[in-house]
Write a structure and sequence with these properties.
rod-shaped, mainly alpha, 2 helices
């Protein structure tokens, strides 16, 4: 095998590994974001329950305040649902990208083994 071919394979391999590392970092950040979003949803749900209890047992003013707060919470829950939906789609995209990158790595390994075997024969 010529030095130029090895150099090209080396450069291709570096590029594939760098893309995979970048994708893994993106997935890590998205996982962190998803955890934060779901934590927020748990907190909002807990607050909504408190306000629902106030609506059930409170006086007229407390019921009105609770109703307004529950409306705000529902808006935030919807906003968070959209955010987690976007993160899920981004994660799905990165998983496909990882699969493609893994296929590229397999091709490089097969190529290198092929070159090594042809030298042995």
């Amino acid at each position: 095998m010529k030095i130029m071919e090895w150099k090209g394979t080396e450069n291709t391999t570096r590029g594939v590994v760098e893309r995979m590392e970048t994708s893994m970092n993106s997935m890590e950040q998205m996982s962190f974001d998803a955890i934060n979003i779901t934590d927020s949803l748990v907190t909002l749900t807990s607050k909504a329950r408190e306000y629902a209890q106030m609506m059930k047992n409170g006086d007229e003013e407390e019921r009105e305040t609770s109703f307004e707060e529950i409306e705000k919470i529902l808006d935030l829950v919807l906003e968070n649902a959209f955010r987690v939906n976007n993160v899920s789609h981004e994660l799905e995209h990165e998983v496909v990208y990882q699969r493609d990158t893994t296929d590229n790595i397999r091709q490089i390994i097969d190529f290198l083994y092929g070159m090594t075997e042809s030298r042995i024969i």
